[in-house]
Each structure stands twice: as structure tokens, then as C-alpha cells.
Amino acid sequence: MIKVKVEFLGGLDIISNHVREHKCSLPLEEGSATMVDLIKFITKNVITDAKDIPVFIEDDTVRPGILVLINDTDWELEGMEEYVLESGDVFTFTSTLHGG
Fold first, then answer.
1. Which residues make Cβ contacts (< 8 Å) with residue 100, sequence separation at least 6?
2. Distance between CA 16 and CA 31 in Å, rounded?
3. pLDDT tens for residues 43-100?
4. pTM for the predicted model, two decimal places
5. Where are the 1-thioglycine modifications (predicted)?
6. Structural contact between residues 94 and 9, judged by C-beta atoms closer than 8 angstroms
7. Domain boundaries 2-95, corresponding CATH code
């Protein structure tokens, strides 16, 4: 079991019934799960309405315009989809495309 925290900021919390922070327990073995597994978990267990999935996902990854941080570090520096999850990780997804 991998326990992580997922945060949605910049208006992105709309996809999870306006809840910004989620404590997630992924039923996977530590050392084998990657960001791909987390993205799938979020789409199945955190996003409250299936019609909101395209707000978060495009071409099987996080859509452009969403900044992804892994433990406060840009996911591009951490390997993006290939990052291996560890219990205690904090994943922050921030929309940069919110209106104003």
C-alpha cells in the first residue's frame, strides 16, 4: 500500500467536488508504482464526474496547462510519468489556465 497526498490548486479542485487535498492509498507495492499508476488512480477514484476527466487528462497524461509538482519539485526534473511513487509523497496539480 502506497499512501500519498494529492492536491488540486488553481481552480482544478472543481474536478474533485471542490476538495483540494486528498489522502490516497494506492493498493500497489512500493517501488513498482509510477506516476502513470497515480494518474489512473486519480481518474478512477478522485475525479467525481467522468465528464471532468478531459479537464485533467489528455493523451493518457496530465494535460498541458497543468503544473505538476512532486514534493515541491517540477515533475519534469523527476522523470514525469516514470517517477516511482513512495509513501509520503505529495503531488500538487495546479491549473495555469484558470479564468480571471
1. none
2. 27
3. 999 998 999 999 999 988 999 999 999 999 999 999 999 999 999 999 999 998 755 4
4. 0.92
5. 100
6. yes
7. 3.10.20.30
Overall residue count recorded for the chain in this entry: 100
Q: In sequence order, what E strands does 1-100 have?
A: 2-9, 21-26, 57-58, 61-62, 66-70, 73-74, 90-95
Q: Which of 77, 80, 42, 50 is nearest to 64 (CA)?
A: 80
pLDDT score, position 60 = 85
- Over residues 8-26, the mean pLDDT reads 92
**Which residue has 494518474 as its cell numbers?**
39
How many angstroms separate the CA atoms of 96 and 100, rounded? 11
Give the C-alpha separation, 83 to 53, whole Å. Answer: 21
Domain map of the chain by residue range?
2-95
